[in-house]
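2024-03-11 09:14:02 INFO queue: dequeued item Protein SRG1, len=364
2024-03-11 09:14:02 INFO validating residues
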Amino acid sequence: MAPVPSFPIEVGHIDDVQELRKAKPTTIPERFVRDMAERPKLAATLSSPSDIPIIDLSKLMKTDQDEYQSEIMQLKTACEEWGFFQVLNHGIDLRMLETIEKVAKDFFMLPLEEKQKYPMAPGTVQGYGQAFVFSENQKLDWCNMFALGVEPPFIRNPKLWPSKPADFRETLETYSKEIRKLCKNLLKYIAVSLGLKGDVFEEMFGVAVQAVRMNYYPPCSRPDLVLGLSPHSDGSALTVLQQGKDSSVGLQILKDQTWAPVQPIPNALVINIGDTIEVLTNGKYKSVEHRAVTHKEKDRLSIVTFYAPSYEIELGPMAELVDEKNPCRYRRYNHGEYSKHYVTNKLQGKRTLEFAKIESKIST
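2024-03-11 09:14:37 INFO prediction written
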């Protein structure tokens, strides 16, 4: 069993971007200013929002076979060609989405001293602060984060569950149960799209690990110099993203070597394939690099749920998806070990997945 690790990595004082914003600095602190190659070219990308696929979950739950098969094929295309899709008619009460958004925003609007009662210790991914920071000279994201382990109970740190807002805990519990149902549903249809039994992932995963991270991106006077969140793929099986309905467009995905912005659709949730599904499908469905950018005048709130197998599970490419045309690309490994590897490395595109890759032998 491999619980979420904690390492005493000293990174010094980390500035809080909300407090920075209040101070109205005349320049962006150097710690946030990206190297030229990393800076977002906002004018080029924001002019052409990407048309990522839309999946209507209600069509997958109907008895009409034509409609069902058509939506399964749409899901297959989304997973193969994009690694991202937006899901409509997901079955989660829209009032629930509004409530979790409100409590998340209310938490971030608390005084700094209140939020600092729940600090994210260096080298961990739970609490308030910035994750994936391991050195004094590492560039910081223009973002405040609050992350919590939710399921199974042993990954929770009760001291980090806030007492304010008063309805935070109850709201997060209810929301997380609904998201868990959605993830199980989506994995069932993803399995079918691969020609596998619908329950294959649920049977394989054991008691699935679920964590939530709330991200708050204040406006930034120079959005062309900073990143809201560094480029990365997710270590999960599935990730569910809820974007605040009044937020700026912030999510960008790497599509055909171009950063493409994702335009939020009202009442939809954004789903992306994580590294775990890439390994299990032997690269048929790939996790995709994504990042967040900031806006000069508008803030942005996002609520992200990560859904992954139990830490005790051994993973590797599924036999049904390995053949002569698609030989085995990844080794077998313990998922807890990969989780530990993921959270103890800074976000660097898809580099963390090198952990699982089998080096191809070049014939001479």
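2024-03-11 09:14:37 INFO annotate: Residues 168-193 form the longest helix (26 residues).
2024-03-11 09:14:38 INFO item closed
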